[in-house]
Amino acid sequence: MTEAVTNTGGDWLRLIVGLILVLIFSQLNALFLVWLERKVAGHIQLRYGPMEVGPHGLLQTIVDGIKLVGKELITPFKADKKLFVIAPVLVFMPVLVPFLVLPFGPELIIRDMNVGLLLIFAFSTFSVLAILVGGWASNNKYALLGAIRSVAQNVAYEIPLLLSVMSVVLMVHSFKFSELVMAQQRIWFIFLQPVAAIIYFICATAETNRAPFDIPEAESELVAGFHTEYSGMRFGLFFLAEYTNMFIVCAVATSLFLGGWHGPFGFSLGIPGVVWFLAKTYFLLFVLMWFRWTFPRVRFDQLMNFSWKVLIPLSMLNLLVTALVLKFV
Amino acid sequence: MTAVYIPALIYLAVTMGVMAVILFLSARIGRRRVTREKMLPYECGMDPLGTLEIHFPIKFYVVAMIFIIFDIETVFLYPWAVVFRDLGWFGFVEMLLFTAVILIGLVYLFRKGALEWE
Amino acid sequence: MSVVEALYQCSGLLAVLILFATGVLILLLDAFSPLGRKGRLGGVAVAGTAAALFAAWQSESPGEPLFFEMVVWDRYALFVTSVILLGALLVLLLSLEGRRRDGAGTGEYYALVLFAATGMVLMAQAVHFIMIFLGLEILSISVYVLVGLPRHERRANEAALKYVLLGGFASGFFLYGLTFLYGATGSLSMTAMASYLGTGERVFNSYLLLGTALVLAGFAFKLALVPFHLWTPDVYEGAPTPITAYMAVGVKAAVLAALVRTFREALPAVVPHWTTALWILAAVTMTVGNVMALVQQSVKRMLAYSSIAHAGYLMVAVVAGTPSGVTALLVYLLAYTVMNVGAFGVMVVGQKERDGGELLQDFEGLGFRCPLVGAAMALFLFSLAGIPPTAGFLGKLLVFSAAVEAGYTWLVILAVINSVVAAYYYLRVVIAIYRRSEAAEAGPEPAIRLSGGERAALILAGLLTVGVGVLPQGFWEMARRAVLALG
Q: Where, subcellularly, is it found (chain A) (predicted)?
């Protein structure tokens, strides 16, 4: 994400440079986030976290990654071979597409599509499918339970997620990220749509299967949930996809509710837009980790009830109120 | 027009390629030793009990069906949100009715206990 | 379209809106009322249907397309809507007591009956194929559920499953046909289609013919015409009896209305190419229906086959296709609705007393145990057989004479032979009603107690059966004016 990608270059050049940068960025980001997660966890629990490899253990995850590549790929005897192999591919395949439309800065959008937001939601729902396929194919009770729960949960939290985002779309009349962000030059949408912002963030936490909504994995009861039987880089792909997805939902939250590349209330303080954007995104990522190490896991019935009985009606009402207010303004 | 979406396909293809390389490397570097214990379903080290032909509570299916209704609702709402201003009051009232009908459905499900997990 | 204009156009959809609103209201009342008070929901449903019928008669029928040329409110729609709502009203009245006894699923039952009526009325009003399809789906899905509502009865489960699977196929056929029609004509609006097809030079377009065939197959399935009738006996037998009546009359009226409107307003250029096929369809349908009805032991199953045969007679009127043919069709629909719901209504009454209560011997001595019910059943069966001076006779007379006028003499001869055959199995039941059963000779059987709703339904149906037969002038005039509204 450097200044190399400018508007003057041809569309294809932009696309290819963007692709290379995205590939590098997504890998580095995942490695960094894993390290960050361990550090945050460590400090919250009054310990240091990784310290040995590199300064403050910064290179720890790289070493872990290399080790993971060298691990054996186990395919259990009775697993459905084809589906078992496909699942990690399916989960990782769509994670890079959203980077196409994410607005890192005023000029730093690889392709500012008119369906930008829809594209992201369309591709991010793939992960449920992958989880179901993986859990189903594993021929393992824990994996199957995790997968089924995961589908129920993802399905329940997808609706309020979409509805809450819609109230922002309603204000801007566009799915284009550049327009969504430009509309927030003066005032961030979190101040105009606080309910939608909160609902979005809760649902995003649930959609990425993060604690306190980590029912699908639930280490203490389901071993490792849907990826119990996965080893080596197949497991690694699930892992990479999870952390990349975290980045994507936080980046979307940043551009929809926190003003994207804009500083607060139109003051950019001389800091470039991309720095604002990444700072806000990583702050949200930090909050996600904070959640994980602070809140206990939600019970399954509470989880479902919360979505169907609270979030969905609330987000619908929020949408209608937004529409009504817009009619009178 | 469709050319706009080709980048998405390219990204998908490249991601597939990267994954292929990663998995290929992993398969080449990693050892392979097949033992019976390793290849059994993992159940905390014990021999696996029973089969996987479990009956899941019907709730999960009910939730899946309800989800389809609400998902379709959002599908209808999305284009509406974009052209909201052009539709005027007519569009607003119409969507209000549509949403009201769906909400009544939710209230009905709520009261009938379709959303109870206890 | 402005809000005011939309509100104004709503006056053309008043019946649909009232039915739908009542359905939703019942769902909510059901969700919020305690179990013991669900009996009142039936009253709400009856009131809603009656209000819709009243509103339909009050709202003027300008005959202009409404809501972006999707629906129309003309005299034709008014006539069919009245028939449908009359059928729904009778069915609801017949259901009241059974529902009060069963308790569970009461709210859903009434709501679904009303939703199905909504779909039916929409089909009668539709002038756009998407609207027809929506109406068809609204009514089909509601009826699928209604059939399977007695969840612990095996027959009902089987019937619902068969119906939903085959009905899904039929809807698929219909929709697939629509895609071909859209491809061939560039529109799904009936007027646009008709003006594109013009005088018919473009008719020899394979897409158009294929599309018409598929649409026809979809309609034929819902009408239970013969090659598409295989689901009918099982589904009619397995469904709760009031719902069987509803399927036999309401669904058929709505689908026939849409079929006739399709032929006359959208595809007049194509119809001549289909006359032979329709001729065969009508002939086979009535013959197979009647022959199969002859050998049934269960009266319910017999009535199921008889409704197939009646679909055949109705198709004779469609084959004729002339204005007088369509007039005859509408009068026949009215007659068929009252007499058929009446016959099923008597069966509902009979089933209260005995488990099953569908076999011929269950009807033995009915005329002595309850003279009113026995006489009513005899009347409905006479009418179904087409014996004067009943509604059934008048309907047949009008249909057959219209067909002869249009030059389909052989088809009419076949239909008359069929009617004679049919008289045998109808009269067999009448004889059973007035024969003393063996049980009665052993000792007097208890008299049948009629509930208010059942009494009202049977009397209303009986009066109309006689009324349409004896004083046909008003009904015929109404149907004639309804046909004038068609293109």
A: Cell membrane; Membrane
Sorted by sequence, the CB contacts under 8 Å of residue A20 that are 6+ apart come out as none
Distance CA A22, CA C311 (A): 66
Domain spans, chain C: 1-269, 270-487
CA A136 to chain centre: 23
Q: Which two tokens stand for residue C252?
A: 């058929």
- State mean pLDDT over C438-453: 72
Average pLDDT over residues B59-80: 85
**How far is it, in rounded angstroms, from Cα C259 to Cα C251?**
12
Output the CA torsion sign for A285, A287, A290, A292.
negative
Rg (chain C; Cα; Å):
22
CA quadruple C262, C267, C271, C274: dihedral positive or negative? negative
Q: Does the predicted TM-score (pTM) go above 0.90?
A: no
Q: Is A111 left (phi over 0), alpha (psi -120 to 50) or beta?
A: beta
Task: State residue A220's pLDDT score.
Answer: 65
Task: Name which of C179, C197, C167, C202 is nearest C129 in CA terms.
Answer: C179
Amino acid at A273: G
Whether there are 3 or more C-beta pairs closer than 8 Å between C and B is: yes
> Which band of pLDDT confidence, cut at 50, 70 and 90, is reported for residue C121?
very high
Residue B58 CB burial class (10 angstroms; 0-12, 13-18, ≥19): exposed
Torsion sign, CA atoms B92, B98, B102, B104? positive
Task: Please report residues of C whose CB lies closer than 8 A to that of B111.
Answer: 31-32
* Cβ <8 Å between C3 and B104: no
Which candidate from B18, B56, B70 shows the least CB-CB separation from A312?
A: B70
pLDDT confidence tier of residue C307, bands split at 50, 70 and 90: very high
**8 A C-beta contact, residue C237 and residue C304:** yes
Give C394's contacts (C-beta < 8 A, 6+ positions apart): C331, C335, C388, C468, C469, C472
Closest by Cα among C42, C43, C54, C94 to C380: C94
Residue B102 confidence (pLDDT) = 86
* Residues 6+ positions from C76 with CB-CB distance below 8 Å: C124, C257, C261, C482, C483, C485, C486
pLDDT of the residue at C123: 94
Q: Which two tokens stand for residue B44?
A: 């905390």
The helices-and-strands tally (H runs, E runs) of chain C is 22, 2
For residue A282, the tally of other CB atoms under 10 A from its CB is 18
Q: Which one of B90, B94, B107 has the shortest CB-CB distance to C31?
A: B107
CB-facing half-sphere around the CA of A152: CA atoms within 13 A: 27
Backbone phi, then psi, for A227, in 5-degree steps? -105, 30
Q: Determine phi and psi for A53, rounding to 5 degrees.
A: -90, 115
Sequence spans of domains, chain A: 71-328
Chain C positions with Cβ closer than 8 Å to B:
1-3, 6, 24, 27-28, 31-32
Residue of B nearest to A111 (CA): B7
Taken in order of first residue, the domains within chain B and their CATH numbers are 2-112 (1.20.58.1610)
Whole-number Å distance between alpha carbons of C17 and C11: 9
User: Who among A148, A232, A234 is closest to B60 (CB)?
Assistant: A148
Distances (CA, A) of A53 to A58, A124, C139, C382: 7, 33, 69, 97
> In this predicted model, what pLDDT tens digit does every residue of A190-247 receive, in sequence order?
888 889 999 999 998 888 888 788 776 666 667 667 777 787 778 888 888 888 888 9
Across the interface, do B93 and C27 touch by the CB < 8 Å criterion?
A: no
| Of C242, C467, C246, C462, residue with least CA distance to C371 | C462
Q: Is A38 on the interface with B (CB under 8 A)?
A: no
